[in-house]
Design a protein that fits this description.
The complex is a heterodimer. By secondary structure, chain A is an all-alpha fold. Helices cover 86% and strands 0% of the residues of chain A. Chain A is elongated and about 65 Å long. Chain B starts with a strand and ends with a helix. Classes of the chains: A mainly alpha, B alpha+beta. Chains A and B meet through helix 1, helix 3 and helix 4 of A and strand 1 of B.
Amino acid sequence: MTGRATPDLTARVRARYRTLHQYHEISGVGEITRRYFAMNGFDGVLTTLGVLAGAYLGGVDQARAVVVLVVTTAVAMGVSGAYGSYMVESAERGRALRELEESTLTSLADTTIGEASRYASVVVSAVTGGAPFLAGIVAVIPFLLTAFWSVDAAYYLAAAVAFAELFLLGAFLGRVSKERIWGYALRLVAGGLLALALSLVLGKGVG
Amino acid sequence: MSQIRRLVLDVLKPHQPTMLTLATKLGDLEGVHGVDITLFEIDNKVENIKITLEGEDVDFQDVSEVVQDAGGSIHSIDKVSTGRRLIEEAETPQDAGARWMR
């Protein structure tokens, strides 16, 4: 029975992949998701750096407290990104579909193009919410491993992880634009340094 | 009841999914041996196409579902051929007059 189920499952998975690939092509969602991934990932990393700077200057020396701060911020960014972009994307695609229906004189809601529109809204919202959430979660990992180092060291490691994320995001952008990776990577890292420096200066000024 | 051997449809569809996808899906239908899609008119939102299907048993309902799923609408059935043998339209003397008018 297991032997008979496997080919059916493989065929179903392949068919599903082909369908989703078709929706991807029809909706042209690739370009938008790349843009939102980079933009919101950048926002997520810089917000996380700001939270870390605030926690450091505020004298938070409990790893658990820092984790809670960063995770709750990451969740808020994720929900904000996902929810907001789903509403916006659904509205825009719904409008485009209705305009097309004026030309075809039929309802397109239950057609491939209607399903592709809904697919696009879900994918865009997942990327828009997922990018800043992941950026925050990854940066806070050093605070989960304070059995191996001090909380102070975790702050520096978390900042290093955040800058590594910025570098990788920049490399991604460089690849997308088919330009030199280093240019974009260093520019994003510079943006992160500026945000961190301003946070630290302002934080010290307030404190 | 005799089966449909050839079907010619006038269809209006959006650009996506493309004619390639539509032709592939129609070609996969049971009873369809061949599909031809010709573009007649196009604007920035929709395209007017002629779909010709031939086979041993072309199911109009199946064809209609595939076209509708692709966002298309069948404006008219321009030609249908049924029976055990495919035949062409017979020439009559009246056709000469009509051709002159065209």
